[in-house]
Amino acid sequence: MQENIYPSRFKIEQKDRLKVMNQRPVLIWFTGLSGSGKSTLANSTEVALHQLGFKTYLLDGDNVRCGLNSDLEFSHEDRVENIRRIAEVSKLMMDAGLIVIAAFITPFERDRKMIQAMIGAEHYVEVYVDCPLEVCEKRDVKGLYEKARKGLIANFTGINSPYEEPLDPFIKIKSNEEETAASVAKIIKSLENKLKL
Questions:
Q1: What are the φ and ψ backbone dihedral angles of 101, each rounded to 5 degrees?
Q2: How far apart are CA 107 and CA 100, in angstroms?
Q3: Could you tell me the sign of the dihedral formed by the alpha carbons of 87, 5, 66, 164, in that order?
Q4: Total-model pTM
Q5: CA neighbor of 112 nearest in space, from 176, 51, 165
């Protein structure tokens, strides 16, 4: 704790908010290579949860870098800070009682463990969107792989920076083999006991 900072204690606590929300807050964290389908799956999962009556909020990499993290570059240090801030924002949203859905490459196991430690293992749901690099490159909707191959982007995951596969994800989705709807149904089913009070 920094000197001269004294966090306030509020009369309304998370347990009070949860009674109103009638749900358990969790962080559903989608990790995988660029182009693996994280954002598509995260969006579709939020739609499905919303239709079931859950209160959610979706955080996505590019969107967050347009605002909260617009001061960060893509150095290793800034990428770690990017993830740390997202975890902190997620924690605040969960304190409000929301189910938070996050879609970020998050290539390093130590950073995913950092998130889990901050949030609490019981509230952290890691979804590994597994897709072969060659498939992600073929999709390349943003043209990022092509730029990385030409040396125009440094530290690009999968090309000149590694992606460490999750050791023990909550669920693994093979996005190049499954239809989005089937993957979302699998995710929702696996979450049933985690979300309801």
A1: -115, 125
A2: 20
A3: negative
A4: 0.91
A5: 165
- Residue among 14, 4, 33 at smallest CA distance from 164: 33
Distance CA 1, CA 151 (A): 41
State both tokens at 183.
């993957």
Q: Could you tell me the residue ranges of all domains in the chain? A: 23-131+162-186
Please write the tens of the pLDDT for every residue from 121-153. 999 999 999 999 999 999 988 899 999 999 999
For residue 112, give Cα distances in angstroms to 76, 102, 177: 15, 12, 25
Which residue type sits at 164? E
Instruction: Look at the block and give the residue holding tokens 């150095």.
Output: 75
CATH architecture of 23-131+162-186: 3-Layer(aba) Sandwich (3.40)
| Helix 180-195 with 38-51: angle, nearest 10 deg | 50
What CA–CA distance (Å, rounded) separates 145 from 154?
Answer: 11
